Amino acid sequence: PGQADMYAGLQELGVANGEDLKETLTNCTEPLKAIEQFQTENGVLLPSLQYALPFLDLHGTPRLEFHQSVFDELREKLLERVSAIALEGKVEERYKKLEDLLEKSFSLVKMPSIQPVVMCVMKHLPKVPEKKLKLVMADKDLYKACAVEVKRQIWQDNQALFGDEVSPLLKQYILEKENILFSNDISFLQNFFSPSPKTRRQGEVVQKLTQMIGKNVKLYDMVLQFLRTLFLRTRNVHYCTLRAELLMSLHDLEISDICTVDPCHKFTWCLDACIREKFVDNKRARELQGFLDGVKKGQEQVLGDLSMILCDPFAINTLALSTIRHLQDLVGQDTLPRESPDLLLLLRMLSLGQGAWDMIDSQVFKEPKMEAELITRFLPLLMSFVVDDHTFTVDQKLPSEEKGPIPYPSAIPEAFTKFLQENRIACEIGLYYILHITKQRNKNAFLRLLPALVETFSDLAFSDIFLHLLTGNLTLLSDEFALEEFCTSLFDGFFLTACPRKENVHRHVLRLLLHLHHKVAPAKLESLQKALEPTKQSGEAVKELYNQLSEKLELRKPSPAEVTETPSMELPLPTVPTPASR
Prior knowledge:
Elements: H1 3-6, H2 18-26, H3 31-42, H4 49-58, H5 63-85, H6 91-105, H7 115-123, H8 130-138, H9 140-145, H10 148-155, H11 159-181, H12 197-200, H13 204-213, H14 217-234, H15 238-252, H16 256-259, H17 265-277, H18 282-293, H19 302-310, H20 313-333, H21 341-354, H22 356-362, H23 372-397, H24 414-422, H25 424-439, H26 443-449, H27 464-474, H28 484-498, H29 503-516, H30 522-531, H31 540-556, H32 560-563
Helix pairs in contact: 5-7, 6-7, 11-13, 11-14, 13-15, 14-15, 15-17, 17-18, 17-20, 19-21, 19-22, 20-21, 20-23, 20-25, 23-25, 24-25, 25-27, 27-29, 29-31
GO biological process, one term: negative regulation of transcription elongation by RNA polymerase II
Protein name: NELFB factor
Organism: Motacilla alba (White wagtail)
């Protein structure tokens, strides 16, 4: 700190500072006497000290050290006292005391040794005077030094400044999500959806935002507004996840000031429990339905928020997994989808979640209309695939007659492909069904339905979340990668159709090969390596992955020595230079 800052504000309080001493010494005839007088006037006014100080001099303790230790001790006591005042007596009285104290001490706010006290007083005031807040805001160093409690008071009337603080955190959050989706660790056991909601809420960004908001409803509303705006601008669904995580983080801390005014609180809380179990059970399904049915006339706007909560990929994942499970149960019960209220509710919520962007964009707050064909044609079609699998399994076990084994059905009903291209909900459920059969290691069903993924609604089959889950599940079919037919269907028939136009698909294929290259037949691997070579337009991530893959494949190539059939036993010894001959 500069010399001026060291003594900032002392003159206003009538306390002598370094400048005064300098002036005294410049204009006096006897400097030693002047110093002594200055010490007497400005020292610690305790009679008993007059005798103790010379004693300290004898021990070689500089006066500065003594005064500094007294000062530090007094500051600590004062900080303790300020914190105590903030808790004692009647509310008006205690804040009056603190306001008086702030008035007296604020002129010293730039003095480094006193600043902590001034900041502590402000921290404990629920309403710092406007004038003081403006002075703090105008000074970068003061703004940086003040407590979050004071910053909240500044932010709530300065949305732009608050936005500047929040923006890097939101960028960091999205980056963290993308890093998980593109992680080089591929596994069907650990994936994007593995961490529990409670674990996710402990993440750095959610915790920081929670702290920045405190109990301030205005700041909470601002963050939600930022998230809505960014979701609209980018269509990035991770903002929906953050919307739910933030509310539940405040719920964990029992911040009722905010939770009671967020109309989505109880719905989100119930859905959070479903996400934790990765299943919507009957009891919770009733609760969730109650919330949706309870949206009153004139309050439809809440549907915009509920749709954003349901658009969170973790919510979609839970609803889609539950839908697949219900469909399997219905096959066993000989029941049609339209006869299952639980299934219809899952579809209703999926539909609301998938329609979030359109609803917030159009500001037309009503539930999307469910297409009857989804329930009467598409879902029975998926159930017929489940039946095909059961039939094939039973046929395999029956003694084969003359006509030989019955082949697995290979044709895809045209209606299935059409639904995946034209209906968003059908496409989402269809993709989850494909993930389900892959996880069951059902190669036949996978190869049968794979061609339907080349063209899907809004290219959903090439979205990062689906490809992240698919690559993880494909590790369960790792032995199939040695087969030409399997690799041609998967790579040439699916992945490579999108690689040139979609950088993210290129990345996911490279991730998969980095993990499974040792299972792929050498000839196929060579042609894949050529096909996946980055172009000039490719980003750094693709180039980096491709280089990693090339290095791994280089290591696998047999060395020339291994290729020669009978290596000579009489190899000449390499000549090692002796130190003298260098």
